[in-house]
Amino acid sequence: MRIVIIGAGFAGMYAALSAARLREIKGASPEELEIALVAPQPTLVVRPRLYEPKPETLTAPLLDVFNAIDVVYVQGSAEAVDTKARTVQIVTAKDARKTLPYDRLIVATGSRLFRPNVPGLAEHGFSVDSLEDAIALDKHLHGLAKLPQSTARDTVVVAGGGFTGIEAATELPSRLRAILGKDAKPRIVIVDRGAAIAPDMGEGPRPIIEDAMRKLGVEGRFGAGVAEVSKSGVTLSNGEHIEAATVVWAAGIRAAPLTQQIPAERDNFGRLLVDRDLRVQGIPGVFAAGDAARAACDDVGNYALMSCQHATRMGAFAGNNAAAELLGVPTRPYHQKGYVTCLDLGGAGALFTRGWEREVTMVGDVAKKTKQEINTVWIYPPRAERAAALASADPEHVTDVSGFF
């Protein structure tokens, strides 16, 4: 029997850990139940940190962890899924193709930045969506120091006033001063079509975010979108032109394209609809987790967000349940009633909220210390020691924040 997991992000990593944990508990051998994970590299990209400097350092190796728990790593990219034949077509690093049969499949392919057909965006825009994108932005920012001082050189437009846009924008003043000199006066402008900053976070956190923007000198342009990007800057939908040598696109994400290979219903974000056990509805043998799945967190109408906090726990339940079906033991319905957010505000500290209503419980330096602990400890893989790695993947305890803070 074989479980195939597509993706080495937070959901894929924990799916592998959790499936291996249940296999161990039930006394099955790796030969009886093979767990294979497919990804281009055996590396976790710490995507929530890609707004920070030195993005090339923001990865964590996984191969030693996989070896410790007897998970087979298959290097390559999943190109196609045949849910009737129960096979995955893989393109290897050398452009060869091979077919990998499965008994259970876990789609944990994550998400991609939504890039609309805005004139000039593809040619002149940057992002912090992927490791490669973040490295390209960092290289570009360092290249600004070679240019003569000008309004455009010192201006960055961040398109998108959500979580990613805010974290990128509030980090940029210190990043640019480190590059251009401590006396530099960078101008950062957040553009969003919404009427105010952080449209999804509600009224409670907003004054704190607005105060942080004022302290850092980050400007806002709301009620208007980016109509065109050029070498000289951006033109907004209201006709305003902002001279800028740097444009960072952070306006929304969608499930990765591979989800389109699964002949099932999806939501507006491209996420596969799943039941409480994270099975893709109507497709036998297929589970989905993380940003690839639209999953109910509880019985009162809350659904998992496209975040690592939800992806890790969903991955753990999906891995456990895929293994449970093959080992003939009961599955566990996914649930995630506890929910917190911790928003980095650069030099202005951070903002911590609890619950779906986003009640503010910490701000400033105290919240910043929590954010740093989350970013440097909590979201990293377990150590490559068999017992510890397997113990970390109990679905009932992965990212259970109900008892914290």
Automatic annotation (TrEMBL):
Gene3D superfamilies: 3.50.50.100
Domain FAD/NAD(P)-binding: 1-315
InterPro entries: FAD/NAD-bd_sf, FAD/NAD-binding_dom, NDH-2
One function term, GO molecular function aspect: NADH dehydrogenase activity
Entry's transmembrane regions: none
Keywords, in A-Z order: FAD, Flavoprotein, NAD, Oxidoreductase
PANTHER family recorded: NADH DEHYDROGENASE (PTHR43706), NADH DEHYDROGENASE-LIKE PROTEIN RV1812C (PTHR43706:SF45)
Family the entry assigns: Belongs to the NADH dehydrogenase family.
Entry protein name: NADH dehydrogenase-like protein
Protein species of origin: Bradyrhizobium ivorense
Organism phylogeny: Bacteria, Pseudomonadati, Pseudomonadota, Alphaproteobacteria, Hyphomicrobiales
